[in-house]
TrEMBL record:
Domain of life, source organism: Bacteria
Keyword Ligase: yes
Descriptive protein name: Carrier domain-containing protein
Signal peptide: none
Domain Carrier: 537-612
Involved pathway(s): Siderophore biosynthesis
PROSITE patterns, A to Z: CARRIER
Organism listed in the record: Streptomyces luteireticuli
Keywords associated with the record: Ligase
Chain spans, region Disordered: 156-181
Cross-referenced InterPro entries: ACP-like_sf, AMP-bd_C, AMP-bd_C_sf, AMP-dep_synth/lig_dom, ANL_N_sf, Nitroreductase, Nitroreductase-like, PP-bd_ACP
Amino acid sequence: MSMAGESFSVLPAEQRTLLLRMNEVTGRIPPGTLDGTVAALAAEHGDALAVQGPRHRHTRAELLAAADAVAAALGRQAVRAGDRVALCVEPGADQVTGLLGILRAGAVPVPVDPGRPQVSRWRQLDRGRISACVSQSWLLDRLSWPDGTATTAVDRVPAAAPAEPPSRDQRDTAVVLPDDDGTGAVTEISHRELLNMTADLGDRFGIGPDDRITALAPIASGQGIRESCLGLLTGAALVFGEDIDLREPAAWADLLARERISVWNSTPTLLELLLTELERRGERLPGPLRLVLLSGEPLTGALLGRLRRLSGPELAVAHLSAAEEHGAWTACCDLSARETDMASAPVGGPMRNQRLHVLAENGGICPLWVTGQVHYGGLAADCAQHRSVTGADRWAVHPESGEPLLRTAWFGRVLPSGTVEAVGHASAQLLVHGRRLHVYDTEVALAAMDGVRAAAVVTVADDSALGFVRLAPGTNRTGPELLDQLRRKVSPYLLPSRIEILDAFPLTPDGTVDRARLAAAGGPAPEPVAARRPVAAHDRSLLASATRIACRVLGVDGIDPEMNLIDLGATSVELVRLATVIEEELGIAVAVEELLRFPSIAVMVGPHLATDTEPPAAEGEPLVGLVERQMFKDTHHGIRQEYDEVTGIALGGAADPRIPGRRSHRRFAPAPVAFADLATLLGAVRRTRHAGEDKYWYPSAGSAYPLGLYADIAPDRVTDLAAGTYYVHPGRAEIVPVRTGHGVPAAAHAEINRAALHQSAFVLYLISRMDAITPLYGELAREFAVFEAGAMTQLLMTVAAETGLGLCPIGTVDAEALREPLRLRPDDRFVHALLGGIPDITGDRPGRTARREQQGARP
């Protein structure tokens, strides 16, 4: 399962290392099958408690004997190895006995909810090609089954001698769960996946025979299968309450204290109901509880904070996720040592022998903080392939290793901690100007508001959102009040049309919020307020100015303010740069995190539209008001407008065709730069003799030419040139080694530029030797050096475009970090820098490639 040989060449080195380490979690998978492992535990700890309920209490030996009796009864009904057998039982100890009995017969259990309508139950049996059913005697008397279905009452089978189960492959299906969507789709879970899952959690949290685990979910759900296997395979005891108490928080609180539960396992929604009951009683969680496992839906920081307040500091908390909704857990986030002020709990990192990847829409690897779709490799993908899971929407291929990946419906991003944070789900998206936006952040913000105990935001048929909340007892808040507060926390595109206050949320059998029922209950939403507000004149002016800046920075001809900039090919680095430029030129603050989530010009300037401006500035003071600044710039004071109406003499001709070729590149291809091309570029700053005088291709104040050019060459990125730093000698038209093998450290560059830096083949540093110009100009020397750097940069970028190279000017560098690599003198001053390499045109925006070909530049 090692990824050591895989390459992530398009990512910075530190991110490659992070992703490799994140996905190197391996461990031993116990041999055999589920029922074989249970039998081994029974042989070793036969007297240990396995299952406890109101009417049944089984040791491990007793549980195995009861399961063998069920297996013998199925054998008498001609059930063969590999056959699928329905398991239709009410929650309790019988569900564990029936599950294990079917497995001991070599068959595959298919849990069926006895509460479903007859038509639905019969359809499940027909689609699953099921001819036998394990149930309970009172259910067999009450429910009807298709003709020819062999039935077995788990509570009435006679004792039987154990038989040797048939041999099976670990990757064979252990359980089949029909999806509750009416399509006939199923989720299959293999023995190997469940054994791997429980071995990981057993080792990670020390779960074993001394533990007692809550069993709150029916067996016909993924949650029920996971918790049953967690107890069966770790040796812990499963503790059931009365089946009528499965949705009664008061009964849970009593069960925790009475049975000395040490491991709570549920969805976050059920935990929230438990905490609400304890808060009502004024009680804390019982002392024996040492571990809380949560899964099935997102976990908010607000809920985690409430849990911490009602427990001791030693309580361990884990948030678990699965590659498939009802499948085995594949990711774990240990929250035991985390702060409680997080907005929501991350998905976490992959469990042992699993791999977790975040891929962009085009299939590329997402850098840190960049949102993409969550995929699983490793064991989850291997087992899915073995059971022939098909469908183009289910599979992807890792762009570097070629490993098949199982695609999930979740969207997330990798954090610097090496964990994945969820940002949304495919079922909870809004379509805004052709771009899918996630309402997950809205739900998290709503759940964190004062007085809100639980929140859910769902999308409805007209592509709008509805919010639902449950308030704390005694809280007097209205939906409109909450909506007004929410406007200050989330993007206007993600505001629900309304917020409804409920006494209780509808729940699925798993114990998650039934979002489908919430969406069905909601009516059509009115048009969002932001869409109805008329655009004022100064709003249009601001949008137009921001659009012009975006066109310039991103190198395109025209942009709709509402369109998604990612669709134009903008990277996260370019978006941050664009935000910086807009802040500098328009004097407005841009929320970069909001921009990265909703990349459009309208989002960048939206908070500043239709707002009051600052009072006019006093004479001689700089303008600070938004409208005043924009109006001032729109008048173009730099042009003598008194001559606008005076007849002039046309210059004729056309613009220099080289103008479009001079542009910045922030993406560089991994191909090495030919030394001949680099030599042509650097040769542009050479000194020549003409008519007996020294000449350069750019001007300098007083012909002092104090500016020196240094090249920092990355390893193996320029042909026939060793890595290291070089001085470009203008008089000799040569590059002279300064320090070979080592260049300027990446830490010398601003964080915003490091992604482009790691892609670049070389960096050019413009350094002014101040003692070559200060004697001539004194205090103006620094300014004249900057002017010269501008002229040299223009020359270098023009020549680069003609040689097929790309340059990206950057201005933020730690000057002190340059002194040793460039062997600078104390009086030398850093002025400017440019990243360089072969432009990566694979991510070009529409029209760029054609324009470059017209200019004659090489790809």
